[in-house]
Amino acid sequence: MRDSLGGVRSVLLLGGRSEIGLAVVERLLLEGAREVVLAARGGVTDPPETLTVTGANVHSLDFDAEAVDTHAATIAAAVDLVGDLDVVVDAFGVLGEQSAYEADPVEAARAATVNYTGHVSSGLAVAARLREQGHGTLMVLSSVAGVRVRRANFVYGSAKAGLDGFAQGLADSLHGSGARVLVVRPGYVATRMSAHVEPAPFPATPGQVADVAVRGLRSGAGTVWAPPVLRPLFTALSLLPRPLWRRLGR
Amino acid sequence: MSRPTLLTGWGRTSPTAATVVRPRTVEQVAEALTRAGPRGALARGLGRSYGDAAQSAGGLVLDCSSLTGPLRLDTERDEITAPAGIDLRRLTTYLLRHGRVLPVVPGTAHVTLGGAIAADVHGKNHHIDSSLGAHVRSLTLATPLGELLELGPDRGDVDLFHATVGGMGLTGVITSATVAVRPVETSHVMVDIDRTGDLDATLELMGDGPRGHRYTVGWIDLLARGGDTGRGIVTRARHALRTDLPAPLRDEPWRVRPRSAPAAPRWAPSGLLNRWTAQAFNTAYYNAAPRRRRGRIRPLDAFHHPLDAVEGWNRLYGPRGFAQYQFVVPFGEEDTLRAVVEDLARTGAPSFLAVLKRMGDPTPGPLSFPRPGWTLAMDLPVDHPGLARLLRGFDERVLAAGGRLYLAKDGRASAEVVHAMYPELPAWRKVRERVDPGGVLVSDLARRLELV
To answer: Superkingdom of the source (chain A) (predicted)?
Structure first.
């Protein structure tokens, strides 16, 4: 249950090792959350210390993003552990090399499954639960890469574009149900996942993205950009003529 | 089942969705309770509790504001029997026609009788007359097991009666009640007004009022700092006698003039009520009050319910809404009160309406809020930075002082803190489990604070 000042009791993190996701959970714990479920492949048996120091109960669940037929059961298992899901952070994803994807179409399709299809099955299962309980927020970690897909990372970007569109549609379908969807669009974030990518302008840390995301939870926003300056920037970029866009090096 | 409806408390924070039905009769209440699904059921009145007490996410909410039934005034015994759905404005208007008033009314008349009992509301006369629950002679309670129970302090299941008074609707649905009424000579009060320079002066004036003042309330300017910290306006009043009234009013001493209530705008921007507007308002309000005035004749409803003069004033806080924080600390713990007032003044948390009252004897209700001591209530916009931390700090202080928070106002406290403040909670749960073994009755408040 979200309290009147925006605090929550329970959090489910899909992508239990995501640095941004964990930073969000950390902040919610400091604001008083008591129950956390970390869902990741093989479970998360060694949660970061920053999560356990607040005295909250940290649970772990096995969650395979590619095994779309298991997602509804995972959500049900999380409900069994903590009861109502106040916030679900949808943070799983993979980011490979575009050139490697182009050389290995099967691997590219697998990445697309993790980055898009897996969110469809888990997102719909979460939405069904939130609708039933009459409250709750699904936070979807999208990316500016999906706002206008670029030559330099179109396998990843196209999946994020699909995810972003899915999340917006899901948000509209939940309107009036008491549940809502918050779409978070970060730019370049320096994490393990992006270590092989060269930093882009306006980089952010996982903590900075989490700050923006948690503010969005509190304010009731539908979409937030991290950092916020990316919003006007990408509005401008989406107007760039195609030949110019194509030639962007990155 | 119809489409879910989003419900909030008066503070307009934390909306959750529920299926809402509007029973008009006791039979319809009983029938609705049998239809509750796995997410449970809950009665709601006029939605004046500030937080999440009258909403139940995913559940069935019985809007009882249309719940009717016989209205009977017994002038021999000075008691009225009324349906739980009647609002206190209509009830008071009816009573005044017969020269009677309710012994206790809260700060707004826009509450149902059932809701007022479920929250065990108090008024400006708690130090003399206790809370509404002390004047309830009996009530009818519909339980999830399909029973219709007659309860009172001396009849039926007495423990269940006490668990229901202040029980926040979690023991059943109150369908009607019989409440003691008080004969009065007029529909007016004689009001004494004093402006006080600081908190000590405010407390002194309120703590040691002369005899004859049934009602005492202090408004505190929580934004005044330094030597002015805790300055305020103390208002004390007694029921006016017929001979107190000017000649034109004397012929119709119980007359109630209808008040026209201008409505607040449908929409106001976030941040309209901020530190600067609050400071300007508070300063103007303080300066506009007379330094000392005696015997001002005021209509009862204007005195009891000043804010009812602006319909929907809660909208002024903007779309994000506001929180009310109300606590009581025992006499002797004035330092805790002082620390809270000083902290609020220092942090500049914008509070327009900070109300201080003195409390006397409590009712036996295990979840009933009032305890002998000082109670301070304030409205705060939820987007004030750092508010959550500030209030958590106050929780700790209030708890350490042996005080507690008012559940009907709360929307943000933690379960641990509230459990420590209400040590009789386990005993209350045992009584509740007798009448609701299936755990049907549940609210967002009950879930958040793990009351059930």
So the answer is: Bacteria
